[in-house]
């Protein structure tokens, strides 16, 4: 699957900046921001505020990966009860 890097301008904390991400990550960010009822700029601002180190593009990629990995983990199954006993 080829996903070329796309550079977009976004406002973070009142400052316009450019972020380069693969289209798949932009799509993931759009989905997350819609689910959380926030703008893309608000979500990127939150990621920027909470990042420990590294550049913003890397922080966004790690955030999107973590978000979808967490959602992909099946919830623990409840033990099935034997109703015939």
From TrEMBL:
Transmembrane segments: none
Keyword Transferase appears in the UniProt entry: yes
Keyword Transferase: yes
Superkingdom, taxonomy of origin: Bacteria
Domain Ribbon-helix-helix: 6-68
UniProt keywords, alphabetically: Transferase
GO MF annotation, one: transferase activity
Full protein name: Aryl-sulfate sulfotransferase
Origin organism lineage: Bacteria, Pseudomonadati, Pseudomonadota, Alphaproteobacteria, Hyphomicrobiales
